[in-house]
Amino acid sequence: MHDLTLAQMCHGLARRDFSSTELTRHLLERIGAANPRYNAFITIASETALAQAAAADRRRAAGDAPALCGLPIAHKDIFCTRGLRTSCGSRMLDNFVPPYDATVVERCAAAGAVVLGKTNMDEFAMGSSNETSYYGPVKNPWATDCVPGGSSGGSAAALAARLVPGATASDTGGSIRQPAALCGVTGLKPTYGRVSRWGMIAFASSLDQAGPMARTAEDVALLLQVMAGFDARDSTCLDRPVPDYAATLEQPLAGLRIGVPEEYFGAGLHPGTERAVREALAEFERQGARLVAISLPHSGLAVPAYYVIAPAEASANLSRFDGVRYGHRCADPVDLRDLYMRSREEGFGDEVKRRILIGTYCLSAGYYDAYYNKAQQVRRLIRQDFLDAFANVDLILGPTCPNPAFAFGAKGGDPVAMYLEDIYTIAANLAGLPALSVPCGLVDAKPVGLQIIGNYFDEARMLNAAHRYQLATGWHQLAPPALTETAA
Amino acid sequence: MSIQRADIEKLAELARIHVNEDTVTATTLGINRVLELIDQLRAADTTGIAPLANPLDATQRLREDLVSETVDRDALQAAAPAVEAGLYLVPKVVE
Amino acid sequence: MSWETVIGLEVHLQLATRSKLFSGAATAFGAAPNTQACAIDLALPGTLPLLNKAAVEMAIRFGLAVDAEINPVSVFERKNYFYPDLPKGYQTTQLAHPIVGPGHLDIELADGREKRIRIHHAHLEEDAGKSLHEDFHGLSGIDLNRAGTPLIEIVTEPDLRNAEEAVAFAKKLHAIVTALGISDGDMSQGSMRFDVNVSVRRPGEPLGTRTETKNLNSFRFMERAIAKEVARQIGVLEDGGRVLQETRLYDGDTDSARAMRSKEEANDYRYFPCPDLLPVHVAPALIEQLRASQPELPDARRARFVAEHGLSDYDAGQLAADTPTAHYFEAAAKASGDPKLAANWLMGEIAARLNSTETAIAACPVSPAQLGGLLQRILDRTISNAIARQVFDALWNGASDADAVIEAKGLKQVSDSGAIAALVDQVLVANPKQVADYRAAPDDKKAKMFGFFVGQAMKASGGKVNPQQLNALLAARLNG
Fold this sequence. Notes:
By secondary structure, chain A is α/β, with parallel strands linked by helices. Chain A has a domain at 6-252 and 436-487: Amidase signature (AS) domain (Amidase signature (AS) enzymes). Chain A has helices spanning 6-14, 20-38, 46-61, 103-110, 153-160, 177-183, 217-227, 271-286, 302-317, 336-347, 350-363, 369-390, 415-419, 426-431, 459-472, 481-487, and strands at residues 41-44, 72-76, 114-119, 166-171, 186-189, 209-214, 257-261, 290-294, 395-399, 435-443, 446-454. Chain A has an eight-stranded mixed beta sheet with strand order 4-6-5-10-11-9-7-8. Chain A has a three-stranded mixed beta sheet with strand order 1-3-2, sandwiched between helices. Chain A is globular and about 65 Å long. Chains in contact: A-B, A-C, B-C.
């Protein structure tokens, strides 16, 4: 049952092959057994999940079955869930139980979804390996000595380990796509403003975007359909119609113009990854798409610009964690300054503190122009590269990450080595463009991802391309060998 | 550009994060690595380029002036470390 | 050699919106602690700001009233600092692109001359909460009800030269914003707070080092604080010292000031555009719509009171400056049919009563309609001015209308000439000596002695006799 996709589960529930309660109980049992091994969940919500499943079963029996009715999912622990601890992977919020739901959570609930629990993540979504979580790292189901990617590593690993068929995630610099690539699942970062950020704990507000993760593009489309749409509570959420993503999934790709940026195939790209991506491109050509060599000349500046803008915004976004109204407070503060200094020292991990200090530096008197302002100018140049490219192509394809999953501690000594793992994903966040990752091969027996970048609000076309690719290839169906061995 | 220990202390003060004596060296090193990375921005020619603070050219929506929030103080203060008589308690504020 | 004082003001004005600048929580005063602070105001994780349309429109209305440029695009920024009354750890405010650009306000000086005070800009921002220093086991209590209340901060150029000018500016500003209805102007509740930047210099020299005295919440405190600070700075300089650039706190209770200890020691606020809010675009059509519906401002109202109601410029100015007073006046003028009489009563009897009982005009127990009814009875000579004061007294203490009081107490003026003649006879008979003295007195003494008989007659009638008729009859009988 746990190998089924969301779409297949949906059919099974509709045909009464099984009930949501049966499905939910089965997956909760799997999570209970496997979570100590993968650490994919911070919080498992057995009781509420079973209650939601029972309600979904009643609802379906009454003839009312909305899009996700009875389908089990997991939420990244960055989304506030009313009455359910929301830690954001941080000691700071270890005891925080929100009195409200994120819009994404609300929409999934309204569509009938069953929430199995909250998935592990890098602290405040700052990381590419899940090693910064206060709750310990998530293990990659493909190789438990390797990282699952980050920051949405818990969602990606839970999907790969068949603990859950669909999950929410968030992406500020690659946090959906990179773990999706490293865990062999499909993940989409929508256009900035497509999905509401209300109730999603902010890392860098102008870059953060919530999106779905699943094992197939079809499932990602199903989840996006529910998550996307206008929300008056988020000023940056756009009031634009949401197309029917399922309706265009099967369209043929003949005539599709695919841009292949030379900058995404340069030094630093693992030859195995390059081979897998080039094979994927060939598959698109076989389906009638045309490959167009393009250039995104400012690509090399994306990581430097990001590591000014994201920390700058984060330094202010994380000022609210001061030990006054909620969150961690140090013991026996002697004065106000001590309350702040120690609560924040104890509540935040090293990477979060580093980024707050960098952001503080980039905004401080005398450095604003050289760093923050300059980075925002470069950001415009990067966006312009994409606008120019999309004048001639429909989609841009390339690798999601340069390398497959790396071992724990491999990038520990040097923060920049870690940052460069996001070299291909960051530009889409700076430009606000939608981008998704689909599995496209194995390198050293670990998955790698193909990245599909689309024009603004062109998610339907991206999902169409991804789905057609998955109809023709089987990479997305591969399960980590450990799972099949256990099953055998 | 690289920063010194004294700069870290100033940043830590601004950001209200105590930096431990035994981690200050590692912190300084790590931040200087990142500063090397972001110093690559200097090479970019950005003459006449307007900064882009938000990826979409959208404008701010305005909310009607209505009292739409009902405040459940007990629920909102359930997560508070120290509360008395409905007030959040902090060490003495000196002006 | 004399010193010249240079003053610039920063005025924080609370806008009279129902809800907060970025949330739908109420802004009303006086609620129990933290019962008007919602998840957004408390900066709970994942919450986002939503900009209040009314606040934007009020800021534009202010800009139009001071003849300022309204910027077509304005930007909210984050001003970063830690303080327990600031939940997000930053204040959302405007810096590089404020909504209101340069404008000006003309004030009237003591000698009647006008002086133009330039306004540098005005911007929208959110207020902070309050720290309560009552003792909670040595801790402070934080009430965030005020957090997020919309403010405009109005910043002047350093065009003011003494405390009187500063107060004149502040009063004029208060008159304008209350006329616009964008603020209740209630200074006791902190609706209007002044920060004064003061420096002194020798005439013709460059500007001296300035200090900022914060959060003055009355005109009198502002006047006192400026006077004290000017004297202090001159004292320092004349002793050969140096004025330090610092932020100071003035205590109105003790009439003393001191330098602030906290907050300012390392003020690197790291402003940057708030990524949760997009640029605010103000369409020309909105500006024109607001311009067309702009309420009458005190200067225009004053001119109209002169032209329309025939008031003196001074009286018109007095009545036009305060909007509730102006509204009361116009209603009473209409109800009575005699604007001048209404103005006299308003600035006389009513002003005195309101003053002595510390009552606001809006809470005046005598309504304009009641006053109008009373004034009509004076005008048609049913009662005299003296009796009118008695009737007013009854109205102030809850009586329903003038006619009922006059009727119930029998205060109707006696104008029947037969009755008055009888009264005069009665007085003359009762006072034969005075009558004889009067008749024997030289003409220049008679006028004064005549008053005695008027007084006796009034007393005997309970003040109700028509004075003109009484005078005529008395004169005829005494002199005839």
